[in-house]
Amino acid sequence: MNKASLILTGITIFLTTAAVAYLGFIVTGVIRQQRSFKNFRWPGTFLAGLLFLLPLLAGIYLLPQVMTPTASKEATVPLELWAAGSLIFSYLVFFTGHFFPHRNKYYNPGAKLVFISLLPSMANAGIIFIITTYLNSNGDKLYYLVFYFVLCVYLYVTTNKIIKEQVLDISKTVILDLNKLIISKVFNTSFRDFEKIRKGSLFAVLNEDIERITVFCNNAVNLYTAGITVILVLIYLLTINPWAVLLLFVVLAVILSIHYSMGIKTAKHFHRASELREVYMDQLLGLSNGFRELIMHQVKRRDYRQELDTSCTNYNEVIHQAYKKYINRTMVSDMAFILSIGISCFLLPAIFHLDMKVVTAYIMGALFLWGPLNMIVKSVPEVVGIKVAWKRIQQFMGANSINSEEAIRQLIEQDSFVIEKYSNREVDSITAEEVLFEYSSEQAPDEKYFVGPLNFEARKGEITFVVGGNGSGKTTLAKLLAGLYVPGRGKVKINGKLVPGRELGEYFSVIFSDFYLFRKVYTETGVSKKNTEALISLFRLNGKVTVDNNTFSTLNLSRGQTKRLALLQCWLENRPIFLFDECAADQDPEFKEFFYLELLPRMKQQQKIVIVITHDDRYFNVADSIFKMEMGQLVCLNDKVM
Ligand SMILES: Nc1ncnc2c1ncn2[C@@H]1O[C@H](COP(=O)(O)OP(=O)(O)OP(=O)(O)O)[C@@H](O)[C@H]1O
To answer: What per-residue confidence (pLDDT) applies to 401?
Structure first.
């Protein structure tokens, strides 16, 4: 069998096998109901595909004339037809896949990529084959070789364009899904766990780690193409001299194992760098949140800046070391590869008594391998980096939570529950029975602080005060009542019925001492302009702020005005229980009077349950009942309730 027949047979077998395999995937996908029919505007796409195929069909047709000038044309015509037929058949099968897309959105572009990414490698191998054929020829096939060279370049460029666009689409989806996944995870984290998360790590995961995975997605296809190119060039070299390929193989195995063993050390550096980046991010957050405090005092500013500089330098140093180690590795592998080329060049002809033409072709092939191989070898740190990034995302997400497609889907969709209405609900009482909560941390397991066991009750149409010294546990009680903390023991009940932790919060409108005011008012019913105008006047914010489209016109207000706005927002939410944690603590006498003597009685009048954590003993007479917190224990100061 001459070379042309061999190549044509190879093309036919490869394309037919790939097409039949793909057809098999489509059919099984349809049977398993993973794929279903979906129509699209296909005629234009189909014709564009056919146009793309035309030069390739010409290439198949001309192949026998280039490679076997002396062979009879009749002998190869059927093979040309088979090859051309298999190309069209595979195109039709490939196209059919568009009509039956897989349910998994990564599967369709992924399968397409696996197939198309083979083509640039083939074009690459074709180019080296054409060049070496030309070098070894006497120039009689120049026009044909130029045609095939252009054909290979055409194939390389067009398929690479398709691949790059597909990869871009996939990485866009990956970024979006991972971001949504992390955000969903944050939303589904309990408040206590959220308190424990280092905020720097949240931003590090959202920025750096996801970015790293995306970059890897882009490079993975290049890696795959490089791998196929290496295989094809090796096959070509095999046809020139098998022993030389074996030698090359041994050299490559040695280079890769050296590279890999050096890579383990680099991985440790990359891991350490990620940890230091979290610390740095945390401090950057401190800079942003505490800028006002920092800018005012020289010492604070100097010391914080020093700390920030130190963590920035530490991070930089470690990442620098990691990349330095990586450079050492690449130098070792670069040197080993160049040495192996030298050995091939000087020793091979002597050992195997090879013709110089064969040696030239061999060296050409080996040099051609250099690019793709380099890419594969140099991607090792990327693979290490991605392993580190993925591990951190997994850690962040919690063990075993994202190991299946179903788990991911459920997590993303978890928040799409039906919204129940809680405003205006009839709530007679909220009670805590023998509730106990324990603060503990992994860093200091021996240092524990207990709140409770305690009993508490607040009733409709009554104002309940909770008083007590700093650190006695008042805010912890508030978080337990509002379902932010889950008690280790005991129960929190609404109207005498046990309510799940997550639902408890729905009954509350809360202002904690370190509250965050959102610019938009998120209410079940939206807010009417007329109603809000009256409220703005009640809260004495006229001329300061307006509400349009459920959104406050500004948040640039004084601290007291911001508190009033937060109270106004609570009012708009219209939940059955109001809870205020030291809401008037840092306010002027006028605000205090407004809060204790005007607002709270109005809420009471509206039959709300009003719980107020306070130190303002001047207004204790406003309360219907007063509880006192002492070292985590609760006592009722008047027996009106208990
Ligand atoms: N996130 C936390 N992790 C660990 N321990 C905590 C945490 N928050 C509070 N504590 C501990 O629980 C105790 C009670 O805190 P809490 O905030 O409930 O007190 P408080 O009565 O509201 O104080 P203050 O009047 O100063 O606001 C504190 O002594 C503190 O040591």
So the answer is: 47
Domain spanning 429-636: CATH superfamily: P-loop containing nucleotide triphosphate hydrolases (3.40.50.300)
Element (H, E) at 430: strand 429-439
Band of residue 88 on the pLDDT scale cut at 50, 70, 90: very high
Percent of the chain with pLDDT over 90: 20
**Segment 417-436 mean pLDDT:** 81
Q: Is the CB of 452 under 6 A from ligand 1?
A: no
In tens, the pLDDT along 104-153 reads: 877 777 777 877 888 888 888 788 788 877 877 777 778 888 899 999 99
| Same fold yes or no, 104-411 and 429-636 | no
Structure tokens at 150: 């252009």
**Residue 376 amino acid letter:** I
CB 449 less than 6 A from any atom of ligand 1: yes
In one-letter notation, the amino acid at residue 20 is V
Q: 591 or 641: whose pLDDT is higher? A: 591
> What's the alpha-carbon Rg for the chain, to the nearest Å?
36
CA atoms within 13 A on the CB side of 267: 15
385 lines ligand 1 (CB under 6 A): no
Mutation pick for ligand 1 pocket among 435, 443, 476, 485 (CB with most ligand atoms within 8 Å): 476
Ligand 1 contacts CB of residue 473 (under 6 A): yes
Least confident of 1-5, 10-14, 162-166: 1-5
- Helices vs. strands in the chain: H and E counts, helices first: 20, 12
Which residues fall within 8 angstroms of residue 51, CB to CB, at 6 or more apart? none
The number of residues in the chain equals 642
Using CA of residue 196, residue 201, residue 207, residue 212, what is the dihedral sign? negative
Beta strands 508-511 and 497-498 are unpaired
Identify which of 610, 590, 592 has the alpha carbon closest to the alpha carbon of residue 600.
610
Q: Which of 190, 194, 436, 439 to probe ligand 1 with, by most ligand atoms within 8 A of CB?
A: 439
Q: How confident is the model at residue 409 (pLDDT cuts 50, 70, 90)?
A: low
Specify whether the CB–CB gap between 539 and 568 falls below 8 A: yes
Residue 526 confidence (pLDDT)? 72
How far is the CA of 36 from the CAs of 39, 44, 318, 509, in angstroms?
10, 22, 51, 48
Q: Of 519, 487, 482, give the one whose Cα is nearest residue 502.
A: 482
Name which residue leads in pLDDT, 427 or 245. Answer: 427
Q: Is the CB of 471 under 6 A from ligand 1?
A: yes
Q: Write down the ipTM of this complex.
A: 0.95
- Hey, where are the domains in the chain? 1-103, 104-411, 429-636
Q: Mind listing the pLDDT tens digit for each residue in 14-44?
A: 889 989 998 998 999 899 888 888 887 888 8
Dist. CA 506 → ligand 1 center (Å): 23
CATH fold for domain 104-411: ABC transporter transmembrane region fold (1.20.1560)
Instruction: Give nearest CA residue, ligand 1 atom 29.
Output: 471
